[in-house]
Amino acid sequence: MKNIVAMALMLVLSIACTNAQTPKEFAKESLDYKMVSLEGQEITFKDVLKKYKGKTVVIDVWASWCPDCIKGMPKVVNLQNEFTDVVYLFISADKTPEAWKKGIEKYNVNGEHFLLTDGMKGAFGKSIKLDWIPRYMVVDKKGKIALFKAIEADDENLITTLKTLK
Q1: Cα–Cα distance between 130 and 110 in angstroms, integer?
Q2: How would you classify the pairing of strands 34-37 and 42-44?
Q3: Thioredoxin domain location, by residue (predicted)?
């Protein structure tokens, strides 16, 4: 009986710790981070999110040099076809604006586009605990993080999250 109680307590603590590590809001460092638009204008991530408030947003952090990102693009297209009322925000970790723009065109990436100015291991990447790309996140209509991390565009949690936000 003691073992069952101990196991149940460990399970509850484990779930609580996991939920505590999943932020529902972006850190100040994320929000204040300046990225670059396709037009070459600097814009803070906070202002990007404001632009889409009232809409569900899928964030795809990617790069044209990333084989897993490129392999995942057909899954992103499937997601876009299934969830047409969602904004798809592509944040690139490409090293140069030229490589980024060429990658968008080459891989026919449809959505809103922004470039990190310091790569995936820079300030923005650290602030969202970016350890792998592609990285998918979902932001709800109020601007809160509904899903903090998925690494596949067909991830069950990603799809379930989008279905619940319809």
Answers
A1: 22
A2: antiparallel
A3: 24-166
